[in-house]
Structures are given as C-alpha cells and as structure tokens.
Design goal:
This protein has 252 residues and is of the alpha+beta class. It has helices at residues 27-38, 72-82, 136-144, 194-207, 214-221; strands spanning 3-10, 46-47, 56-65, 87-95, 107-115, 128-129, 148-151, 166-177, 180-187, 236-242. The chain has 2 domains: 3-95, Alpha-Beta Plaits; 107-242, Pseudouridine synthase I, catalytic domain, C-terminal subdomain (Alpha-Beta Plaits), CATH 3.30.70.660. Strands 1, 2, 3, 4, 5, 6, 7, 8, 9 and 10 form a 10-stranded mixed sheet that branches.
Length: 252
C-alpha cells in the first residue's frame, strides 16, 4: 500500500491535545475527519508523538497508508480547504514503506516563548509573560546540566502512565531578542509534561535566586516534588521532528 507523510501545523488552544480521545475534540480527530472526507480507504493516521492540550505545532509529522496512490499536491490543497483554520498541512510526500512517523524519529525539537517585560501586549502571541527580569547567562548555566542521557523523573508528571524515564537531551538553550526569550530543547524523546516542567523549574531557580547548580540537584533527585511547577502550555510549540541524527551530538 502507498504510504505518505505530512507535516501538520496547529494552534492547540482549542483542542484536548493531539491524540484521539473519547468524547474530546483533538488534532487527530479533526485530521482523521478531513482525510476520511477525501479518501474513505484511509483507516488511521500515526503521529510522531503526542502533544498535550494547548500545545502548538509547526512540525508534527503524521503518516498514513492508502489503497491507491494519491496526487500529493491536489490532496494538500483539498485537505487544507476542509480543516479548521487553526490546523493546516504544510507538506505531503510519499515515503518508503519502512517509514514510521513515531518509530523512525531520531529527535524532537520544542521551543517555549517567554516575554520578559513589565506589561503584556496584544501582539505577544502564544507566550508566557514574566515580569521579573531574567538572567540569560544564569538560565543557560542551569540548562547545561540537562545535556546528555539522564533519568528525567524529576520533570515527569506523576499522572503519566508510561514507565519510561530516561531521555537523551542534545540541546537545551535560551536565546534572547529584545524582550523575547526563546527556550529551545532537543531530545530523542520527552516524558509527559517534561518540557513545561523544565521551564517551570528554570523560572523557579530564577525567581528564588537559587544557584544554577540547583538544576543538577533537582535532576539527580529523581523526585517530581523537588522540581518547579508545570508551566502553561500556551508558549510551547513542537518545531521539528528529525529523522536523521541530530547534528550537535557532543554531550556532557
């Protein structure tokens, strides 16, 4: 059967996450509905991974199989005409039969947007407003302790049912332009609520004026109660899913 992948963009505010759930409107349920309108032979879609309620995407990868070949450009135009305005498909292409959106992925890249100023603006978009001045150098020193392969139990939601706890973080860094701080993290996988809890912990270290080494102590504690709060999902975006080895492979 022909197999295709597509890159799906969405604003997650109005959805109960990406994954199909009973009695809930999700990204996958809307995507499945649109696809079925175009081709009823397509039985299911496979996402590269789940995103939580309220989380956005510029690069979610999804694959599906069809009984007959499709014209990708025509399918792309048609599906974007059906999908809600806060979901779109930016690319569709045929892939090898061995490709799997989730299992073939080598890394995921997320960004979290923080606006660091005294007052909000209507132009801030999906971001977190932090009024207290943040120290970029200190923040990056804190994040440096996350690089490498670790047990990330301290940053995993206690509501999560998946027993996995180890991840390899290839990059964790903050950059600043004007009063906008972008936190970017790249890892082979992420635990439930992991990115949002890392951001909450980073802000906790800054607010309480803890030493950056506190991040290392929290990581090594393997205890969720030691970390900061799980921050709002609205500033978080899945930017990219990579299917080649991440280029910056130097780990501490």
């Amino acid at each position: 059967m022909p197999k295709y992948s597509m890159i799906v963009e969405y604003i997650g505010t109005n959805y109960s996450g990406s994954q199909v759930q009973p009695d809930a409107v999700t990204i996958q349920s809307e995507l499945n509905k649109a696809i079925c309108t175009l081709d009823k032979s397509i039985k299911k879609t496979i996402f590269s991974g789940r995103t939580d309620a309220g989380v956005h995407s510029k690069g979610q990868v999804v694959h599906f199989e069809t009984c007959e070949p499709i014209v990708a450009s025509r399918f792309l135009n048609s599906i974007n005409g059906i999908l809600p305005n806060d979901i779109s498909v930016s690319k569709i292409e045929e892939v090898d039969e061995r490709f799997h959106a989730q299992l073939s992925a080598k890394y995921r890249r997320y960004q979290y947007k923080i606006v660091n100023r005294n007052q909000r603006s209507v132009w801030d978009g999906h971001s977190l407003l932090v009024r207290e001045p943040l120290d970029l150098k200190r923040m990056n020193e804190s994040l440096s302790y996350l690089i490498g392969e670790h047990d990330f139990s301290s940053f995993k939601s206690m509501k999560g049912t998946n027993p996995a706890k180890d991840c390899i973080v290839y990059k964790a860094e903050c950059t600043k332009e004007g009063d906008i701080i972008i936190f970017e993290i790249v890892a082979n996988r992420f635990l439930y609520n992991m990115v949002r809890t890392i951001v909450g912990t980073l802000l906790m270290i800054e607010h309480e004026k803890l030493k950056p080494e506190a991040m290392k102590e929290i990581l090594e504690a393997k205890d969720r109660t030691k970390a900061g709060p799980t921050i709002s999902p609205d500033g978080l975006t899945l930017v990219e899913v990579g299917y080649e080895e991440f280029p910056a492979m130097t780990l501490n």
